[in-house]
């Protein structure tokens, strides 16, 4: 049975985070959505996504296939409902397609917007993401679920007695290192993946997870619900934020109610606002409507897409969206929407030439022995550069 995670219109509403990946490759909680389904179903997975992403994220079709909405996070009720589907049956919540079981011929012509003759209506609520802010909003729920999934029936590895652990929901994988730090699990679990380091003087309140090969620097303060993805380094003060893989916020400065993509770098003493001075509702730039959208949130910080970077002492306004490959620097507050492949700051922006951006990306990838900035990566970024040209009319 092949598990194929498909994109629907959420791929558009989740931009710019999904320019570089299918929706199910988004990390929320400890795992990506695709990894959650694979763990629950004990199966490999693939993706049904946009054409320019297919080389990196191909679909693997077999005789029997379950297509699952990539924006949907698994739970026990969903797993039971999907497990009972017969070939040709679709599971929907209102008009949203959750899953459909198809043979090889049906899988080859699969269209998430098509009508299906045999539809089962799903009656229960579940976690689904539609907008970028949903990732930090719902991270608490998914952190707790993933913690239970990954630690059920297992015992934590021992960590140094120089640490203080408050509460019982603490788990360290073998190879996790921590010294002279406090871990408070009374508000939520704390999970340290293998080959991670928490340096001395750090204070962490759960729920919190750090993924493999990442580091928390000395004196860091972290509040839940926060996730630090693989191969990251973080410091300063972080609150209710999700940082994906290969990104760094290694210095002092505040990051709150935010999402950082992969290959991002936050300069020293950079801060983002997550609350407007007048306590008003925060709006975020929406690529699908090309205007600012009300979020319904009073606390909403920074949304930064893959390969974006900012210089030291950068100040981000409440509800700022920074696109793929943007490079922000200089004094003052940049605008609340920084277009993809932009270069500049509050004094103005120009186009970040893609060959120059590639030079930087190559240097960043060279720091990771197991990752190559190959033709596939370059072609995806080139496609995004072309798609986002309309936003760079400075």
Automatic annotation (TrEMBL):
Acyltransferase among keywords: yes
The keyword Zinc is assigned to this record: no
Species name: Mucilaginibacter angelicae
Matches recorded under Pfam families: NTP_transf_4
Protein's UniProt name: GlmU family protein
Keywords: Acyltransferase, Transferase
Domain of life: Bacteria
NCBIfam families: alt_bact_glmU
Entry-linked InterPro entries: Bifunctiontional_GlmU_bac-type (IPR023917), GlmU-like (IPR050065), Trimer_LpxA-like_sf (IPR011004)
Gene3D superfamilies: Hexapeptide repeat proteins
SUPFAM superfamilies on file: Trimeric LpxA-like enzymes (SSF51161)
């Amino acid at each position: 049975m092949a598990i194929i995670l498909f994109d629907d219109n959420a791929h558009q509403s989740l931009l710019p985070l999904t320019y570089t990946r299918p929706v199910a490759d988004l990390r929320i909680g400890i795992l990506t959505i695709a990894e959650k389904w694979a763990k629950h179903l004990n199966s490999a997975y693939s993706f049904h996504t946009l054409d320019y992403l297919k080389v990196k994220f191909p679909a693997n079709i077999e005789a029997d296939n379950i297509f699952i909405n990539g924006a949907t996070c698994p739970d026990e009720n969903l797993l039971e409902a999907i497990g009972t589907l017969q070939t040709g049956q679709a599971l929907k919540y209102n008009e949203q397609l959750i899953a459909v079981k198809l043979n090889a011929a049906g899988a080859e012509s699969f269209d998430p917007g098509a009508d299906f003759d045999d539809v089962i209506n799903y009656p229960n609520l579940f976690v689904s993401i539609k907008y970028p802010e949903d990732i930090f909003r719902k991270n608490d729920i998914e952190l707790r679920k993933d913690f239970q999934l990954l630690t059920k029936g297992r015992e934590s590895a021992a960590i140094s007695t120089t640490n203080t652990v408050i509460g019982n929901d603490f788990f360290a994988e073998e190879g996790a290192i921590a010294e002279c730090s406090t871990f408070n699990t009374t508000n939520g679990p704390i999970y340290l993946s293998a080959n991670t380091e928490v340096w001395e003087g750090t204070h962490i309140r759960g729920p919190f997870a750090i993924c493999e090969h990442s580091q928390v620097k000395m004196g860091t303060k972290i509040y839940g619900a926060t996730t630090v993805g693989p191969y990251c380094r973080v410091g300063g003060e972080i609150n209710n934020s999700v940082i994906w893989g290969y990104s760094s916020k290694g210095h002092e400065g505040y990051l709150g109610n935010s999402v950082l993509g992969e290959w991002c770098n936050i300069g020293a003493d950079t801060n983002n606002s997550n609350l407007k001075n007048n306590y008003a509702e925060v709006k975020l730039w929406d690529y699908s409507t090309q205007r600012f959208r009300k979020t319904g949130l009073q606390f909403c910080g920074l949304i930064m897409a893959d390969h974006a970077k900012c210089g030291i002492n950068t100040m981000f306004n409440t509800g700022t969206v920074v696109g793929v490959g943007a490079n922000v620097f200089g004094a003052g507050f940049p605008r609340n929407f920084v277009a993809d492949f932009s270069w500049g700051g509050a004094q103005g922006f120009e186009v970040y030439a893609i060959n120059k951006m590639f030079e930087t990306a190559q240097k960043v990838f060279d720091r990771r022995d197991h990752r190559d900035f190959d033709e596939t990566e370059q072609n995806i970024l080139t496609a995004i550069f072309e798609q986002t040209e309309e936003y760079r009319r400075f």
